[in-house]
Known about the structure:
Elements: H1 11-22, H2 28-41, H3 46-53, H4 57-70, H5 72-76, H6 90-102, H7 113-120, H8 124-134
Helix pairs in contact: 1-2, 2-3, 2-4, 3-4, 7-8
Amino acid sequence: MSRIEPIMIDGADRDELERLVRDRNTAQKVVWRAQIVLLAADGLQAGAIAAATGKSQLTVRRWRRRFVAKGVEGLLKDASRPPRRKPLTAEKIAEVVHMTLHAKPPNATHWSVRSMAAAAGISYSSVQRIWQAHGLKPYLTKAFKVSMPR
């Protein structure tokens, strides 16, 4: 079993961590992070900490390192992660707006969300967001058409 070196915690940090563990309004992920740090400060081994908190040894090491680097504040917030998809570039948005206003799709009178998405090479939900942000409604006609009785 690997041994984790004890973390030295001053009295104020220990009080804050114990308060987080006792507080019923603290998020559970913050509670087990604080428990990991408190158990590491007491000198427990990684396996014992992992068993006591129900987390893996990798998780124990991660939150121990985070506490050493950032203190109690590091336990309260998750690390930021990059977005799942990169946002659309301004050029791509401008291309969709220009195509909507100045081009006609082949074999159609106006663009649909899906035909524009296929032509621009982006998802249809992205086209919907772009059209909504720019107030574009290519499926509406601007002229009023009067029907004549027979």
